[in-house]
Amino acid sequence: MNSKYYNRRNFIKVGALGVSSATLSISSASDSSGSSTKPIIISTWDHGAMANNVGFKLLTDGADAIDAVQQGVMVVESDPKVRTVGVGGYPDRDGVVTLDACLMKGDGSCGSVAFLRDIENPVAVARKVMDETPHVMLVGAGAKKFALDNGFEEKELLTEASKRDYENWLKRTDYMPPINIENHDTISTLAIDQNGVIAGACTTSGASYKYHGRVGDSPIIGAGLFVDQEAGGACATGWGEEVIRTAGSAMVVEMMRNGKSPQEACEAIVKRINERRKGKEIQIGFLAMDTKGNFGAYSLRKGFTYAVKHKDEDAIKAATYLY
Ligand code: GLY
Question: Which of 42, 72, 154, 254 is the 20 to 30 Å CA partner of 316?
């Protein structure tokens, strides 16, 4: 572990940076051939550019991929303007913001927290679980106690904006969480560092107005995220129930191990999900990257964007899609 980059107090507060320093050209992409050079970082959605800015700076300074993805997604967790992750995330149907997050290295090291309340950076707690416990996953009150015992501070995650939206939602009679087809959701990030090590992180406030206690795909190793040093990494965004049912990210990585390109593997898992649940009314997107830095992205519906950063490119791209 490179503690220089790991220390939570060294977390680079660049939320205000937003995505402004990225080259925000939107371009259609399929089967993108990534840079053969390292390092490289890719992240879901437009807000992925914020994570990439921070993560890529660390990578070029020599940080480990696991530190780059963690520090990158922490910026998004801490930004109250991002309404689907961390502070400012939409609450559940009882008005409580609960967070899910995980991270994983190519050697199989991983940590996860789920149904975590009142902690700004769940991915940093997941990192503690990975580094300092014999376990992979802590949930709920136990995860919060672990965080507080390890120096994390309690924070109100429900912002005025989220509270206002929740109160409006309460006026509705239906109890289905809205399906997120907007251009934001879980932040999932994959990176390869200068040593060729691959890692990923994934963090979310989950489906808005979900049942209290609902956990999505994002903290589940193999569903929202899977990374393997031999085959590559994959991560997901969107309606987590279908990603869990298909062990989505693990499947994508196994497909790459068996010869599919990252793009082909992303397309195959989305089409498999679509066969199970003709899913025009939901959105699901996958990112994948092999260990050479070739990457791919594909979603069920139009609208999934992702951010890419390496020495030759700094861009937000539109993923290809089924519908
Ligand atoms: N993909 C985020 C969730 O379903 O919770």
Answer: 254
- Backbone CA torsion sign across 29, 31, 35, 41: positive
Banded pLDDT at 281 (limits 50, 70, 90): confident
Residue 19's pLDDT is what? 46
Q: How many residues are there in the chain? A: 323
* Phi, psi of 255, deg, nearest 5: -65, -40
* Lowest-pLDDT range of 23-37, 237-251, 281-295: 23-37
**Phi, psi dihedrals of residue 260, rounded to the nearest 5°:** -75, 150
Residues near ligand 1 (Cβ within 6 A):
186, 204, 206-207, 216-218, 237-240
Q: Is the pTM of this model over 0.85?
A: yes
Q: Dihedral of the CA atoms 59, 297, 292, 27 (nearest 10)?
A: -70
Q: Whose CA is nearest to atom 4 of ligand 1?
A: 240
The arithmetic mean of pLDDT across residues 124-131, rounded, is 98
> Long-range contacts: 145-154, Cβ < 8 Å, 24+?
147/113, 147/116, 147/119, 150/125, 151/8, 152/8, 152/119, 152/120, 152/121, 152/124, 152/125, 153/120, 154/118, 154/119
Catalytic residue among 44, 98, 186, 291: 186
